[in-house]
UniProtKB/TrEMBL annotation:
Residue intervals passing through the bilayer: 27-50, 62-82, 94-115, 136-156, 168-188, 200-221, 233-251
GO terms (BP aspect): phospholipase C-activating G protein-coupled receptor signaling pathway; positive regulation of Rho protein signal transduction
GO cellular component: plasma membrane
Family: Belongs to the G-protein coupled receptor 1 family.
PROSITE patterns associated with the record: G_PROTEIN_RECEP_F1_1 (PS00237), G_PROTEIN_RECEP_F1_2 (PS50262)
UniProt GO MF annotations: G protein-coupled receptor activity
Gene name of this polypeptide: LOC115596913
Sequence ranges assigned to domain G-protein coupled receptors family 1 profile in this UniProt record: 41-220
Membrane topology value: Multi-pass membrane protein
Keywords: G-protein coupled receptor, Glycoprotein, Membrane, Receptor, Transducer, Transmembrane, Transmembrane helix
Name assigned to this protein: G-protein coupled receptor 4-like
Length: 287
């Protein structure tokens, strides 16, 4: 197992019997599709999130940094696709390093987003008192520095890097579950408006789903389940994680959760009405 270097491991596990490493064409196609979609939508999402600052006078710093880390991953994927035939290329190695930094930073900012939403509900007075620009800036700097340190350990000791990386990826799971559970428990005593409560819970649920579905396979791969299928699936899910982060902007917009719930309720009402009409028709036909 080659530490936290997912891109490198994904390509190194694909080879022919003659020893010539050739990545699967399907993986290349999927990577190109993800890159094209991500590079088009992520800058738009960053601009849209920044526009929320002018409207609400609140800077969603963690979400902006999360989208920036996603943009770094997309750019590094371009390098991995373009330079994958040159396994000893300096550009490719730098791309691997930056990809791992962006990937781990995105995990850190997901936790920061969940923590911020939890504090809005569970500790509103403390959050309002501590809500200064200096604190989020310091946190963001730390979130960027820690992945750089972890990725650097790969060049020193691969086994140590794998242990640190696995621990780093496992820590967010109990934290995200705690933030979601604590938020739900504190909802009844909170004075936050109902639409804001639904929006915060929706963001927490979305963050937990993204982490569980797209990052946990990588944790399993790092834990020792190392084969071609697990490696390719883990890397594929990690490639999809930046696209999933784009939904955070959708959930941040006011009224999105209400519209979603309204559409679900309308679908249920339509299905109930249709079922009642069908039962009425059947009963009348039997009479």
């Amino acid at each position: 197992m080659e530490g936290f270097n997912f891109t490198n491991a994904s390509h190194n596990n694909i080879s022919d019997p003659d020893g010539i490493k050739r990545p699967l064409s399907s993986m290349e196609v999927v990577a190109c599709i993800i890159i094209s979609i991500g590079l088009c939508l992520t800058p738009v999402a960053i601009y849209a999130v920044c526009s929320l600052v002018r409207k609400n006078h609140v800077a969603p710093i963690y979400v902006i940094n999360l989208l920036i880390s996603d943009l770094i991953q997309f750019c590094c994927l371009i390098i991995s696709v373009a330079e994958q035939k040159e396994s000893h290329s300096i550009t490719l190695k730098v791309g691997y390093f930056l990809y791992d930094v962006g990937l781990m930073a995105s995990v850190g900012f997901m936790v920061c987003v969940a923590l911020e939403r939890y504090l809005v509900i569970a500790r509103p007075l403390w959050y309002s008192f501590k809500r200064v620009i200096k604190t989020p800036v310091v946190v963001c700097v730390l979130v960027w520095i820690v992945p750089v340190f972890i990725s650097s350990t790969f060049w020193i000791n691969e086994n140590v890097s794998a242990i640190i990386s696995t621990t780093y990826l496992l820590l967010p799971l109990p934290l995200l579950i705690f933030f979601l559970g604590g938020t739900i428990r504190a909802l009844s005593a909170s004075r936050v408006p109902s639409d804001e409560k639904r929006r915060i819970v929706g963001i927490l649920v979305l963050v937990l789903l993204i982490y569980t579905l797209l990052f946990m396979p990588a944790v399993i791969w790092l834990s020792g389940v190392d084969n071609d299928i697990s490696t390719n699936l883990s890397f594929l899910f990690l490639q999809l994680s930046p696209l999933a982060d784009l939904f955070l902007y959708v959930f941040m917009r006011k009224g999105t959760i209400d519209k979603l719930l309204a559409s679900v309720c309308c679908c249920r009402m339509d299905s109930n009405v249709s079922s009642r009409m069908d039962s009425t028709y059947i009963s009348s036909s039997t009479v």
